[in-house]
Amino acid sequence: MARSLLTVPLLTTTAVAALAWFTLGPAAALAFIALALLEIAMAADSSVPMAGIAGRLHSPARRLFLSLGIVAGVLAMRLLLPPAAVAVGDASDPASAVSEAVFAPGTFAAHLQDVRPALAAFGASFIWLVFAEYLFNTDRASRRSWLGGLEARLAAVARPRVWSLVTAATGVVLTSVLVGSASSWEPASVVPVVLGGVAGTVGYLGSKAVAKWALRSPAGTTDTSSIGTGRDAWRIHAYASTVVFERGLVVFMLFEILDGAYSLSGSGPLGSDGIGALEQAAVAGAAIAVGAVFLARLTSHLDRAAGLQRLRYLKAGAAYVLGVLSMLLWTSLLVPIPGTVVGWFGSVVIGLALATSLPWRAWVRRARVGA
What we know:
single chain; mainly alpha; about 80% helix
């Protein structure tokens, strides 16, 4: 299974690396391989929550989501959101921000650093609210608790959506107070954190409002059995776009905010000698595309194999990855987060969820019977 899933991305990586070697030189080829392998590794973590989202979609939107939606969403969020954030933060022309990202990545990285606190605060509150959907069981789904009694009690609280908003607001306020205390309450340090946190909450509520509207049947009910067919089939695609945005934002925050490096900047693997600005942009875009294709293939396989149903705690593990990510984003506003923490926390959580999902007792019983 793993071999077949890796065939396309690895063949693509080999072909693009060879092309980069002959056209741009060995430095570009080595930089592309390093970044592409990193993208493939991190895509494995994102595939589990992506499969959970795919399971909530009806068939027409699911096919679009698993094929074009994931790839387009990841590419758009990874490559276009940073220039958009810089343009908004500097009140500049978006086209100028894109041009700077491609032709002057060092300058662009400095400008991105200026808006990083607002972006991190936005992502932390948005992603926490996504995690709170699982923590407080807003859908009231029947499930077995992964972490025991405390998780079960939190999943049974009254008014779960209120709890979600209250905890997110607490995170925004607490982080703003800590940032303010550390900076002697300088407006330039506190205001971006406050505005970013509020914008993240508003963005989440707006996304959910679009999703709720898209899933509402023409009769005005919440019965979605007819959604995805007839004249209103396009509504389910509107819903799919909201979840693509949700996951694309998570992947962007994971790569670009916590590790402190924009894909097109001169840091990380792309900082190798001999690679110009245009070459950096081409190498980064190709590596991100390889990771997005692998993410789409792995998510599609999990969806077809009903992996989240058979491995009952994988969905919980994916949810807790979001919870930890949001906490790391808030923490990154106060202290630097080591790259090793960013690179491995998702793998550890997903690995624990997978290990606890496997039928160890049944295997032991079968082994004893066989002996």
